[in-house]
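User: Structure please.
Assistant: Input sequence and predicted structure:
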Amino acid sequence: MKETKPATGIRKVIFLTGATGHVGRNLIPKLLRSDPLARLIVLIRAESPSHAAGRLAQLLSSLTPAVDTEDGRQRVSAVCGDITRERFGLTAARFEGLASQATHIIHSAAATKFNLPLDEARRINRLGTENVMALARLARKKGILKRVAHISTAFVSGNRSGRIEEGELDRGQGFSNTYEQSKFEAERFLYDSCRDLPLLIFRPSIIVGDSRNGATTAFNVLYIPLKYLARGWLRFVPGRAATPLDVVPVDYVCDAICHILLRTVGAEGHTFHLCAGRKKATSVAEVLLEGLEYFNRVGLRSKALRLHFVSPRWLAAARLVEPFLSRPMKKGLRKAKFFLPHLKLVRFYDTANTDASLLGTEISPPEFRSYFQVLLRYCLLANWGEGRAETATGFPVPEQAPAA
C-alpha cells in the first residue's frame, strides 16, 4: 500500500454516521481539513429535519475552534434519519438522492454499551451496518462511490488470547458482552455479503480522549475503574497487574482513518488494527497504579489509598457479601464482570496493514504514559462527564480544556 495525493477536480462528498459520537465528532474537523473542497453529510437521529439541523449547529459550535463556524455551516449538512430503519427512514427519492452524492461513506455509528440486550445490540450494530451498506451498494451502482469505511472494534476477537492478526475474524471465539458479539456479527455480514464493495474495516482498541488535551465525550471502558479509583470506591482488582492493555487516543484513531481512507492506494478489501500493538501496549498496573498515584498526589482525599490485585475468583466470593456493601461498591461489582476479560487476557494486536499504510507519515500511536496525566486532568476538570468540576486539595483550577 502506498500514499497518493488527492485527485484534483473531484469533489468529495463524505457521508458520515455517528457524527455525534466520540469518534465521529473528532473525525469532522479532520475530514474538513483533509480537503478544502470536500463536503460532509452527517446522519443525525432527530424528531424532524429542523431538529437535526439544530443538533448539527450545536455539534459544530462545540467543535470550535477546530471547525470554523462559517466553514462548517457551508460544508456540513444534516440528514434526519436512523440507521436501524430501512433507508434510514427516508423516502426512496431522498435515499436515492443521497446515494447520488456520496463518494465516500464512513459508518461510525454504534451502540457501545456492554450490557445491552443482545437483540438491541444487534439491531443497532448489525442491522445498522446492513442499512449503511445498502446505501453503499446504490452509490456504487450509480458509479459515484469511491470507498466505504466501517468502524469496528479490535474486540471482535472476543475471548481469544495471543497474537491477533488483522486478516482474522472467526476463530471460534466466545464473547464477553453483547457489544463484542454484535460487532463481530456485523463484520461477519461484511465478509459474507460485501466483498464487491470498496470496503475498508477499521478496528480500534480501547479509545480514550485526545492525547493533546484529554478531551472526551465518552467516559466509559477505561474511565470507569479510574473514576472508582478517584472516588475511593475501588480497593481490590480481580486480575493480573501485568496483563497488557491496548489503549489509543482518539486523535490517533481519527488521523489514521482519514489518511488510510483518503490517501492510501490499494487499501480496499483490507482490515486495519488501530491499536498500540505489542510494543506500545500499556498494562493494568500502569493504568491503575499510576492513576491511583496521581489521584493521591493531587489530594482528592485526606488519606491516600492503596490498591490490591486479587484472584478473579475473588469476584464470585465478593458477590456473597454484596447485600452488605455500599451502593457504589455494589455498582462496581456489577460492572466488574464486563471488564474482567481486559484484566486477565494476554493478547496483542498485530498492526502490519496499518503500519504499512502510515509509513512515511507522522501518524503513530503515542506512548500511553506520555499523555496519561493529560487524560486524568481532563477527567477531574469535567467531573467524569457528570457536569461539575471536582475540587481537590492542591489541585489547580484549570482553564476550560479546548475541544478535541
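The first helix runs from residue 22 to 34.
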